[in-house]
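Work through this protein:
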Amino acid sequence: MPNVDLKELNQYSPYYVDAKITGSTLNNYEQFTNKVYNLPENIKTFFLNSLKIAEFIKDTMVKNNLTEESGKELARIIRDLLFADFYLGDVVNQIGQRVGVDDQKAKIIAGLIIIELFSPILEDLKKIHTQKFASATKEQEVKDEPSPQPPIQPPVEDESIIDLRSIL
């Protein structure tokens, strides 16, 4: 491994990005550690391998011309996804809003996170999100379904019946 500045990389680690805030009170620290320990084993291992994630974020920053603060926000987004603090399907919106990039760049970054970074844990991550956000996914499915349209009746030939559609 080339000469790596661990202090620099730790600022992009989902584990360490908010260490000062998380460790500022016992309550914050306990909430954080409970979230970590309640993760499924493979996702916990992935999360605790913060150097790999930090290197990914640093690469993504360079490829997409992002600032240091944007890199830290990506670390928070990745952490929040691993903790299922927001729905995986909303990652593009979260990146756009929190990192401050346009939709096109947010989609590119989301794709990198999901396809490259999360590939070893993606199926388990989907399970967690589906379980936690079951109502949100059902609502999304309902929104995606087209509403049923009433059948169109052929024009009426009988003169004793007035077709109100032709009047309006």
The radius of gyration is 24 Å.
